[in-house]
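Task: sequence in, structure out. Protein: Glutathione S-transferase.
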Amino acid sequence: MKLLGRLTSINVRKVMWTATLLGLELEREDWGAGFRSPQEPGYLALNPNGLIPVLLDGDFVLWESNSICRYLAAKVGDTPLLPTEPQARARVEQWMDWQAGELNNSWRVAFMALVRGQPATPEAIAAGVKGWNHHMGLLDAQLARTGAHVCGEAMTLADVVLGLSAQRWKNAPIERPLLPAVDAWLQRLAAQPGFADYVDNGMP
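Result:
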């Protein structure tokens, strides 16, 4: 299997961390800012959105990083990262969808302005930081309820995708509230294979 995308992308790193946790080997090819453009016709034929990453598994092509993570777990089969029991799996996918939608949309303006240098008004940045902190507070409350991982005792794909998001929040140049459950959870995740390479590696 081959993954197309630069390692500086948080969405590429979540797939690479998932593969490491599953014991899968992924060949990775650099695409995106600073490398080959995903606007090239050949890439757009794979992903018409022109975004990274894209997974190639033989003739099978898949985009959207959370979908790729689910696919890799499903290929392995019996793994705690993606339970097969319907309600347990739905809970994991609920939090993955929340990460991709609600949480990502909350930090987008503030992060892109403060870290990536895109233009935004001070008011928009302040509103973005407030929303980002609010959503991280929701995650902290969930982790306080479980006392372990996002969906309970076992680590799942929800922890993978949200772990990368939480590390981005922790390293962002913003004022943050104290979220002890998030801090304790990140320390637990730090013991997992691949955390140092794909999460706590200094990349925003």
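The two ends are 26 Å apart (CA to CA).
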